[in-house]
User: Fold Thioesterase domain-containing protein from Pestalotiopsis fici.
Amino acid sequence: MVSSTPLGTAESRSAAYFEAIPWCAARLRSASDPVTYWPVPWDRDGATKFGDRFFSTTLSTELTIPHFVFFHATPDPSTPENALLPELQAFLHLESGIGGYPGYAHGGFVCTVLDEITGLICTLNRTRGALFRGPAMTGYLNTRFLKPVKAPGLVLARARITKYEGRKAWVRGWLEDETGTVLAEGEAVFINLKNRL
Assistant:
């Protein structure tokens, strides 16, 4: 079951797209594990409208990623508003425009998705007051390619915070297919910026 977090028009279309696909709908509509859609704040610093244009504009096309939706487990009503949400997930519909070898996603694109999902879980928790204040950037992202990622195709991207201390957050990210097979995984550290760039 999905909570009623307000989504924009494009996000609502993407949510409807994934809710019509049985394996995606099973995760999004589970009564035992309800989820909340998260409308990503692409203007990460909140002050400009020039934030993450790479995902929100460059990769958001009919030939690249025509549909994507981010979501997390719905917290229990007794959970404090500033409690850490340990995991973020996203369904992505990949098209041939992100391809490298014919029929498969480019390895650099796979790294980009892992960087995005691992960074966004930090953003989600920062906006909740559960992590450091202010923006963070990738300190490192170590990636392992386990199986080719099909394009066109659908993937589930997941990220989990494994540790946070001071100005650093350690995050594990991975991509799965519809069977739950892990296709690629990454370990990242995000560092809170002392001063604005």
